Amino acid sequence: MDSVATPGRTLALVREKGLVPRKSRGQNFLVDLNIVRKIARAAGLGPDDTVVEIGPGLGALTQELAEQAGLVIAIEIDRDLISALKETLKDKANVRLVAGDALKVDFDELVAGFKGDGGGRLPTYKLVANLPYYITTPILMHLLTGKFQITELVLMVQAEVGYRMLALPGSKDYGSLSIVVQYYTIPAVILKVPRTVFYPRPEVDSLVVKLTRRAEPAVQAGDEDFFFRVVRAAFNQRRKTLLNALDSLGLERPLLLKAMAVAGVEPRRRGETLTIEEFANLSKALQQQMERR
Ligand SMILES: C[S@@+](CC[C@H](N)C(=O)[O-])C[C@H]1O[C@@H](n2cnc3c(N)ncnc32)[C@H](O)[C@@H]1O
């Protein structure tokens, strides 16, 4: 079957199947084969690779992934799209379609269901998606904190979110998302994508980013849940000093001040100036002080 990634073929398929792209599901289909190819190529796929795709839509990206990977597992929430997908993917024997909600999927179990569990050593795989924008952050949190055997993620996201993933201390885009992404992965920009290559057109431009999973987190943060609580507290009230922002953790002031002194972090600084290492040191110092109480 010819690629569905052209305006003519996408529109014809939408009409033929009586589909109405749902905004509530983030349905903006790619209609530019050149962009589709660049996204798939960014994942560096070969015949030995398994790739999971979230939200295949009409199959534009799936068709290309199937050309390059050994096995493609595509999870689509909208059952109305499944019949269109069966048609656009009918000559792709290496694609497995799964109807379901990616937010609820245990990706390792899903892959093991098709590939076996590797005799206890779960197979690794890549993840590629033109993400539905309305759930970008929860999906990303699920993918990263879920500790799945994903080695690389190539994701198309709203440009603004992409810049937040890559932001460094001191920039206006730097926040909790930057820390979570950089803690677990090494992010890089692959490509800027204008809104004109989608049907229907979204209201914003997009960015394709590649996240390479680190073998070990970027820093040793001690208790991870606590580390992320500290990070969220620091950024929830960005304009406050760190000392005031961390009040929301419910800890006594003297303890906060002692931990800041131990970590070498000035209480008057703002959270948005702290590096990921400084957050980790602060979080560990707070944990130590709490244990000593
Ligand atoms: C931006 S579209 C991308 C479609 C296609 N991959 C493309 O590039 O043309 C997002 C897709 O994700 C699907 N989707 C939305 N929420 C989902 C979820 N929770 N789990 C799986 N798929 C979801 C939508 O139905 C839609 O097909």
Structure description:
The chain has 293 residues and is of the alpha/beta class. It has helices at residues 7-16, 33-42, 60-68, 79-88, 107-115, 136-145, 159-166, 176-184, 224-236, 242-245, 253-263, 276-292; strands at residues 29-30, 50-54, 71-76, 95-99, 125-130, 150-158, 185-193, 198-199, 206-213. A seven-stranded mixed β-sheet has the order 4-3-2-5-6-9-7, with helices on both faces. The longest helix has 17 residues, at 276-292. The N and C termini lie far apart (67 Å). The mean pLDDT is 96. S-adenosylmethionine is lined by residues 25-30, 54-57, 60-61, 75-78, 81, 101-103, 130, 132, 135.
Short descriptors:
293 residues; alpha/beta; seven-stranded mixed beta sheet; 12 helices; 18% strand; elongated; binds S-adenosylmethionine
In short:
Helix content is 41%, strand content 18%. The protein is built from 12 helices and 9 strands. The strands form 2 sheets. Strands 4-3-2-5-6-9-7 form a 7-stranded mixed β-sheet, sandwiched between helices. Strands 1-8 form a two-stranded antiparallel sheet.
Q: DSSP helix count? A: 12
Low-confidence stretches: none
Question: What characterizes the major β-sheet?
Answer: 7 strands, mixed
What is the number of E strands?
A: 9
Q: Which small-molecule species are bound to the chains here?
A: S-adenosylmethionine
- The strands making up the biggest β-sheet line up spatially as 4-3-2-5-6-9-7
Q: Assign the structural class, choosing from mainly alpha, mainly beta, alpha/beta, alpha+beta, or little secondary structure.
A: alpha/beta
Helix content: 40-55%
**C-alpha Rg, in Å?**
21 Å
Distance between the termini: 67 Å
- Please tell me what the overall shape is: elongated
Describe the oligomeric state of these chains in a short phrase.
single chain
* Strand/helix succession: HEHEHEHEHEHEHHEEEHHHH
Determine the strand fraction and express it as a percent band: 15-25%
Overall average pLDDT = 96
GO molecular function: 16S rRNA (adenine(1518)-N(6)/adenine(1519)-N(6))-dimethyltransferase activity; RNA binding
Main location: cytoplasm
Protein name: Ribosomal RNA small subunit methyltransferase A
Domain Ribosomal RNA adenine methylase transferase N-terminal: 35-215
